């Protein structure tokens, strides 16, 4: 019986690691917009080139820090004396909840938080699986490392992007300085690359933390230890591969749905995003890079004019932010209840998850968004109302050869 149990645990750990890497892959294409939506929208980079650069820099960034991974693997869940015993099965269910919510928001083109989907999935699965409810969660870590950054980071990004945009337009005011504004496209290549690098230092670590937590729970790694090198490497490769695939639906929303982005705005938004993410990674805050990037775009829009922001779209994105954690938690809780039936339950979870993923993919083909039409106008009848305004935006600045007077105005 002992050997049989060990084999079962080993197989479950392998399954969880594979599922975690698939989540990492979805995180990659879900969050490509964070760095590359604005340079693609302004024409600073071609779509395929942009996602290739983002993939490489996400890969590099994943090796630069492990502070966020340690937050997830050794702090969020109460373990040990006075706590609960987390199991690989709970992590399995948590990942299912996170993946299902990630793909749902991708289908709708909503830039929701992959990070909060992951946290919600873990919280929902552990709360049900341990039978301790929310008592299984360390409130101090939850508030200081997740809730507080979720509130402060987007607001900080809005303020920084707003200030940077105002400064950029002030420095380049006057007709003689129109060419200077166009040079912001070149600057966007640098700032968007920094965002990709910063994204790798933060988001790739979350999956590292999950895999490390699984290995500790299964007894394959000592408690309190950080991620092994092989874990860092496979997570880096998974998120880089997902990034290269390109989450075109979300890129369209961030790049053209929130506001009409000019090169100066794009440069300011990316600079604000980079500064916020890198500071949070250094402090070990597992913030949502999606919220930061979207907040930066909103701030950049406000830097030109209040009515430059499409508040209806921004409001829907805000609602998605609010419901991400509880929705992912609910999905994970259901998956955990099913998984508790044993091998049949785990197989049922995997089967249902696979079917849902296939159906979502088939649904997405009815209204395909690719690198070829990511900045173009989409027929209204084929546009999800949850994402875009009634009148599809026209991004004049995406065509460098024909800048409009509006895009070069100092409003």
Overview of the molecule:
With 411 residues, this protein is an all-alpha fold. The protein is 70% helix and 0% strand. It has one domain.
Question: How would the blueprint of this fold be written?
Answer:
Blueprint: H1 2-30, H2 32-42, H3 47-61, H4 67-73, H5 88-108, H6 114-129, H7 139-171, H8 178-182, H9 184-217, H10 229-245, H11 248-257, H12 263-283, H13 289-304, H14 311-339, H15 343-364
Helix pairs in contact: 1-5, 1-9, 1-10, 2-3, 2-9, 2-11, 2-12, 2-13, 3-9, 3-10, 4-9, 5-6, 5-14, 5-15, 6-14, 7-12, 7-13, 9-10, 9-12, 12-13, 14-15
* Integer average pLDDT: 79
Which regions contain 5 or more consecutive residues with pLDDT less than 50? Answer: 1-7, 377-411
The major pleated sheet works out as: none
Distance between the ends: 73 Å
**Contiguous helical run count:** 15
Q: Could you state the order of secondary-structure elements as H and E?
A: HHHHHHHHHHHHHHH
Total E-strand runs? 0
Global outline: globular
Radius of gyration: 21 Å
Q: What structural category characterises the helix and strand content?
A: mainly alpha
Tell me what portion of residues adopts beta-strand conformation: under 5%
Number of discrete domains: 1
Q: Percent of residues in helical segments?
A: 55-70%
């Amino acid at each position: 019986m002992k050997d049989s149990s060990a084999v079962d645990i080993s197989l479950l750990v392998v399954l969880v690691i594979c599922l975690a890497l698939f989540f990492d892959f979805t995180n990659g294409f879900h969050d490509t917009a964070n760095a590359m939506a604005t340079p693609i929208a302004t024409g600073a980079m071609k779509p395929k080139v942009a996602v290739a650069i983002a993939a490489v820099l996400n890969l590099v960034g994943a090796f630069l820090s492990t502070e966020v991974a340690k937050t997830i693997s050794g702090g969020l869940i109460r373990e040990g004396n006075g706590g609960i015993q987390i199991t690989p099965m709970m992590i399995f269910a948590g990942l299912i909840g996170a993946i299902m919510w990630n793909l749902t928001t991708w289908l709708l083109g909503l830039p929701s938080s992959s990070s909060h989907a992951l946290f919600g999935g873990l919280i929902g699965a552990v709360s049900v699986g341990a039978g301790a409810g929310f008592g299984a969660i360390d409130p101090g870590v939850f508030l200081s490392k997740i809730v507080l950054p979720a509130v402060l980071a987007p607001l900080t990004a809005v303020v920084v992007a707003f200030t940077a945009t105002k400064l950029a337009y002030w420095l380049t005011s006057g007709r003689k300085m129109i060419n200077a504004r166009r040079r912001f496209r070149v600057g966007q290549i640098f700032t968007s690359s920094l965002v990709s690098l910063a994204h790798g230092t933060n988001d790739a670590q979350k999956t590292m933390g999950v895999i490390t937590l699984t290995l500790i729970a299964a007894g394959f790694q000592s408690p309190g230890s950080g991620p092994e090198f092989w874990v860092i490497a496979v997570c880096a490769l998974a998120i880089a591969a997902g990034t290269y695939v390109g989450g075109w639906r979300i890129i369209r929303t961030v790049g053209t749905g929130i506001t009409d982005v000019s090169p100066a705005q794009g440069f300011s938004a990316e600079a604000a995003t980079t500064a916020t993410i890198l500071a949070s990674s250094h402090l070990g805050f597992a913030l949502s890079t999606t919220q930061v990037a979207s907040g930066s775009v909103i701030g950049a829009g406000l830097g030109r004019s209040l009515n430059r922001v499409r508040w209806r779209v921004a409001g829907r994105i805000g609602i998605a932010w609010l419901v991400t954690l509880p929705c992912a938690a609910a999905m994970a809780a259901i998956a955990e209840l099913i998984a508790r039936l044993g091998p049949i339950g785990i197989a049922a979870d995997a089967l249902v998850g696979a079917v849902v993923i296939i159906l979502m993919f088939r649904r997405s083909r009815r209204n395909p968004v690719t690198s070829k039409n990511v900045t173009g106008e989409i027929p209204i009848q084929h546009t999800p109302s949850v994402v875009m305004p009634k009148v599809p935006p026209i991004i004049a600045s995406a065509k460098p050869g024909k800048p409009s007077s509006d895009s070069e105005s100092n409003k």
